[in-house]
Specification:
Blueprint (H helix, E strand, L loop, with lengths): L4 H27 L3 E3 L4 E5 L4 E3 L2 E3 L5 E8 L2 E8 L6 E2 L7 E3 L5 E3 L8 E8 L5 E11 L8 H64 L1
Parallel strand pairs: 2-11
Antiparallel strand pairs: 1-4, 3-9, 5-6, 5-10, 6-7, 8-9, 10-11
Length: 212
């Protein structure tokens, strides 16, 4: 005996309802797959400082991390990478960015132009993602304490100056030695010449006395 059509429709409705509930639960769990923590959402800095944009994340698997820079100048992609792999740094930030496996980045020798909003997006392999924002304000007031990069450059300059001064001192010592040797040779030459002149003068006087 076949079931009534109303029962079939009712069973299909229950199945579709369960399927929709499962999809909603899956989406809810997926949206909770990535968590992002930003300990400091606003940073004040001065020019030539090295700034750490610190974040922490947790998710399933290895995520893709992306940083973008937003300001009145526009939007720029800074870097994108997966922890444990080489970072793809944009040309505008070459040699100015250092990445960390926890998602943080460090900017070297910031300038006033670096002021703006830095947006991080963490995307896991399932597709869920989270983003956060850090505001950076860079003032042109020079800090009385030089940055590590400035100290490194200063050390290199001082090292070059010290080597150059040592080279000049060595050249000066060689020149002084040569001048001393030349002076000694000239003194001996003049002494011999005077001695010869004195002998020749004495011989002439003796010859004159003999003739007389």
């Amino acid at each position: 005996m076949r079931p009534a059509p109303s029962r079939r429709r009712k069973g299909r409705g229950v199945s579709l309802g369960l399927l929709a509930l499962c999809l909603a639960a899956a989406r809810c769990l997926q949206s909770q797959g990535v968590s992002l923590y930003i300990p400091q959402s606003a940073i004040n800095a001065t020019v030539e400082e090295d700034i750490l944009l610190s974040v922490e994340y947790s998710c399933h698997g290895v995520p893709t991390i992306e940083w973008k820079y937003t300001s009145t100048w526009g939007v720029q992609k800074i870097v994108e990478w997966k922890p444990g792999t080489q970072a793809n740094i944009s040309q505008s930030h070459k040699d100015r960015v250092c990445t960390f496996d926890n998602g943080s980045i460090q900017l070297f020798s910031v300038s006033v132009r670096d002021s703006g909003y830095y947006v991080i997006t963490v995307t896991e392999h399932l597709g869920s993602s989270q983003f956060g924002t850090i505001m950076l304000h860079v003032s042109d007031i020079v800090s009385p304490f030089p940055s590590s990069r400035s100290l490194e450059i200063l050390y290199e300059d001082l090292h070059f100056v010290a080597v150059f001064l040592a080279f000049l001192a060595a050249v000066a010592a060689v020149l002084i030695s040569l001048m001393w040797v030349c002076n000694k040779c000239a003194y001996k030459f003049q002494r011999k010449r005077r001695h010869k002149l004195k002998e020749s003068t004495t011989e002439e006087i003796e010859l004159q006395d003999v003739e007389c």
